[in-house]
Specification:
Structural class of chain B: mainly beta
Shape of chain B: globular
Number of strands of chain A: 10
Strand content of chain B: over 45%
Helix content of chain B: under 10%
Number of strands of chain B: 11
Largest sheet of chain A: 7 strands, mixed
Order of helices and strands of chain B: EEEEEEEEEEE
Strand content of chain A: over 45%
Shape of chain A: globular
Distance between the termini of chain A: 28 Å
Oligomer: heterodimer
Chain lengths: 110, 127
């Protein structure tokens, strides 16, 4: 059971906009910034978004992040087949004195 | 170019020990926190431990406290020994995972994130 809650799966067709949610609590998302990571099959995770809504270097602006209270979201617009991957949210947790991740969302491009 | 290369993974029996290394290059290693994240087969990411740039602060996930120790060697750029380590003792089957080291930006603050990752090292705990 992950500390941050993400839907296990999401899907969309090419060109569509999809969003992935990440729900936490006051000790993690409510107090600290959220980062998002993309993991393509068989590869290491890659930073997409940091500080809730800042795009990492080289990341297409089709990817955007937002945060409100104890929840965060990753939005992908103009969905492309190469976006098919697992996506994880993360934040520091002040109660646990450690980083916590969401369980991951598997995005399928139909 | 930032590079992180893990080594030291392998097969170990339950109760055994293993030491992972992560060699860093392409940046001022002594200025950054470093972190270890693991991923069990078919599972999600789990943060394991991190260490402050000078080694003075370390944090661990509860499940590894007392068994794993993170350390680092901030050697000079010339010596080529900029590395972070994860000493893993009393290993259990549930520690089986790919272990990634990552560079942590703004470690120790509310704004931290992991901007570069290694390729990972597989640790298998089995008899």
């Amino acid at each position: 059971q992950s500390v941050l809650t993400q839907p296990p799966s999401a899907s969309g067709t090419p060109g569509q906009r999809v969003t992935i949610s990440c729900s936490g609590s006051s000790s993690n998302i409510g107090s600290n910034t959220v980062s998002w990571y993309q993991q393509l099959p068989g590869t290491a995770p890659k930073l997409l978004i940091y500080r809730n809504n800042q795009e990492a270097s080289g990341v297409p602006d089709r990817f955007s992040g937002s945060k409100s209270g104890t929840s965060a979201s990753l939005a992908i617009s103009g969905l492309q087949s190469e976006d098919e991957a697992d996506y994880y949210c993360a934040a520091w947790d002040d109660s646990r004195n450690g980083q916590v991740f969401g369980g991951g969302t598997k995005l399928t491009v139909l | 170019e930032v590079q992180l290369v893990e080594s030291g993974g392998g097969l170990v029996q339950p109760g055994g020990s293993l030491r992972l290394s992560c060699a860093a290059s392409g940046f001022t290693f002594s200025s950054y926190w470093m972190t270890w994240v693991r991923q069990a087969p078919g599972q999600g990411l789990e943060w394991v431990a991190n260490i402050k740039h000078d080694g003075s602060d370390k944090y661990y996930v509860d499940s590894v406290k007392g068994r794993f120790t993170v350390s680092r060697d901030n050697a000079s750029r010339d010596s080529g020994k900029n590395s972070v380590y994860l000493q893993m003792n009393s290993l259990r089957a549930e520690d089986t995972a790919v272990y990634y080291c990552a560079r942590e930006v703004n470690g120790g603050t509310a704004y931290n994130f992991f901007d570069h990752w290694g390729q990972g090292a597989l640790v298998t705990v089995s008899s």
